[in-house]
Amino acid sequence: MNSPLSIGVASGLAAALLFLVVRSGSVFALLLDMFAPLPLLIAALGWGPRSALIGMASGTLVVTALIPGAAGLIFGLGIALPAWVMGVLIMMHRREGDRILFMPIGICLLATALINALMALCMAMMIGGDMEGLTKAFGQIIDAISTAHPDVLAPIGLSKDDLAKLMSQTAPPIFAALGVFTSSGLLWLAASLVNMSGRLIRPWPDLALTSMPASVLALTGLAAILSVLFDGFGGLYARCVLLALISAYILEGIGVVLVITRDMTSRTPILTLFAVLTLILPPLAGPVFVGLALLGIIDRMAGIRQRALTKLTSTPVQPSQEAE
């Protein structure tokens, strides 16, 4: 019962169950649906990507058999496939003498951003087919909301058409950005659970030191330029990539904060207060996230974490056993 085959089938069934509970329509079911990739990630990290591939196949078959229409395709392409791809990247390695060098977590973070940007674009294309169709679809959503709650959209101060156009331009990039946080959180949770069981295949690095390649700065700038120059789905995809990469830099900025506060005796209360204020004061969240993204970008250029660790240890930080 502990073989990759049995674990893969079990992970696929668990993922399919978490995906299917959303049909109940409750808020709790929606939260559970967000955890649908978790069993597949656990299978990949503890039993290898082949086990997650088996889970992807079994889960997709179950969803397809139980729900007619495109549900199986949505589960397979939107949940199972990205989880399997991340499992492959996390477990990818090469041998160098007696050492096994795993894929750097920074590369995996970059892949997470690009995958979520692509998923956001695919979602937009499935909803509308083109930008005009996407705007029309959001207009229908706004009509449904206005019918159910006539006064809920009044404070926004935009006409239905303007609001629909705004949503068609901003909703997919926001989906991509949130997807980076969700995917990274699920990956961390899966690794923590597998590590507690002693089955984690790769040595888990210090996540606070996660850093994407320096070339990602150029990719971020290119995405910003293309998002302005291009219309249609080309510009929309550039915006999805831009916000996804900014989200990745926010995570790196959090890593900078975690590193530079390591020698502080009041570190835990400071970080807790920082997190609580950001969550309970939405106007504060925006500037904080912008600051964290800038901190992550500055660290990529100035090496803030490297300097902080060198100061703490008084010796240069040795590179981890990961492929460069």
What's the SSE blueprint?
Blueprint: H1 4-20, H2 27-34, H3 38-47, H4 49-66, H5 71-91, E1 93-96, E2 99-102, H6 105-128, H7 131-148, H8 160-196, H9 215-229, H10 232-260, H11 267-280, H12 282-302, H13 304-313
Antiparallel strand pairs: 1-2
Structure characteristics:
324 residues, mainly alpha, two-stranded antiparallel ribbon, 2 strands
Through-space gap between termini: 37 Å
Percentage of residues in DSSP E strands = under 5%
| Count of alpha/pi helices | 13
Low-confidence stretches: 315-324
- Which sequence of strands runs across the widest sheet? 1-2
Sheet/helix structural class: mainly alpha
Mean pLDDT: 85
How is the biggest beta sheet arranged?
A: 2 strands, antiparallel
Order of helix and strand elements from N to C terminus: HHHHHEEHHHHHHHH
Cα-based radius of gyration, to the nearest Å: 21 Å
Report on this model:
The chain has 13 helices and 2 strands. It is mainly alpha-helical and 324 residues long. A two-stranded antiparallel ribbon has the order 1-2. Helix 3 runs antiparallel to helix 4 and helix 8 crosses helix 10. It is globular, with a radius of gyration of 21 Å. The protein starts with a helix and ends in an 11-residue tail after the last helix. The C terminus is likely disordered.
